[in-house]
Amino acid sequence: xxxxxxxxxxxxxxxxxxxxxxxxxxxxxxxxxxxxxxxxxxxxxxxxxxxxxxxxxxxxxxxxxxxxxxxxxxxxxxxxxxxxxxxxxxxxxxxxxxxxxxxxxxxxxxxxxxxxxxxxxxxxxxxxxxxxxxxxxxxxxxxxxxxxxxxxxxxxxxxxxxxxxxxxxxxxxxxxxxxxxxxxxxxxxxxxxxxxxxxxxxxxxxxxxxxxxxxxxxxxxxxxxxxxxxxxxxxxxxxxxxxxxxxxxxxxxxxxxxxxxxxxxxxx
Length: 268
Ligand SMILES: Cc1cc2nc3c(=O)[nH]c(=O)nc-3n(C[C@H](O)[C@H](O)[C@H](O)COP(=O)(O)OP(=O)(O)OC[C@H]3O[C@@H](n4cnc5c(N)ncnc54)[C@H](O)[C@@H]3O)c2cc1C
Description:
Blueprint: H1 2-8, E1 12-15, E2 20-32, E3 35-41, E4 57-61, E5 73-74, E6 80-81, E7 89-93, E8 97-99, E9 104-110, H2 116-123, E10 129-133, E11 137-140, E12 147-153, H3 157-166, E13 172-179, E14 193-200, H4 207-213, E15 221-228, H5 229-241, E16 249-255, E17 264-265
Parallel strand pairs: 12-13, 12-15, 13-14, 15-16
Antiparallel strand pairs: 1-11, 2-3, 2-10, 3-9, 4-7, 4-10, 5-6, 8-9, 16-17
The structure holds flavin-adenine dinucleotide.
């Protein structure tokens, strides 16, 4: 029986055709003073697939000097070949929602101090061009767990919001979300039974301290966390010490303080 449960709870990796898509901005909306929602659309989104809440697309931004969006070419083995003498500006973003009937993709951008993605969101208007690549693949975590834990900062909110929409009715979910202050909080739509903890940076509280005092759901749980790198590195040993099965734990660094354009999964 235990072996069967393990099999039923095994995450599955699904690969997708790697494609660059040339799109344009359909709408821009400030969800909070700290989060801008940009919906992009176009025929190139035909066949777009994103099966997991923690998928990401590479978003290619215009060169601020030339206004041109440069992208790599992909060689036969899928390795990117960068155009000589041209700047490729790309960052990772979560497909927050995809409307296949309208060919529209929703991306939510956390606004911070500096960086090309943040700068782009400050001046973007309807009709502006944008290119995306991917997702390359999706890691699908079954909905067969007794409970779920979702932890993250602003950059993880799109993935957390999307996962909460997918979770089955009544399943226990602990959510710890770190944002600047109350004005950055989002309203989640979910049928899960959630225990939601907002952590406000302005009070000096940290994700780890909120996690220490929060009760994990009973039974077999899947824990997903994504946030700044050094916080992410502290979370993994803490969660394992709390009894979380490392096979059912994924911790990612979605950004690294002081370094542009980073992404890593925290392993032992
Ligand atoms: C798989 C994946 C999915 C992601 N999904 C999303 C998403 O849906 N929405 C989203 O907003 N972000 C998401 N991110 C994070 C986003 O890619 C990074 O925050 C990215 O670095 C932002 O690019 P930038 O051009 O604004 O800043 P960069 O040029 O990359 O960085 C400039 C400076 O800003 C700092 N910095 C970067 N991000 C932040 C931040 N959030 N807060 C404070 N300082 C920061 C860097 O340390 C650096 O010093 C995701 C990352 C990954 C790996």
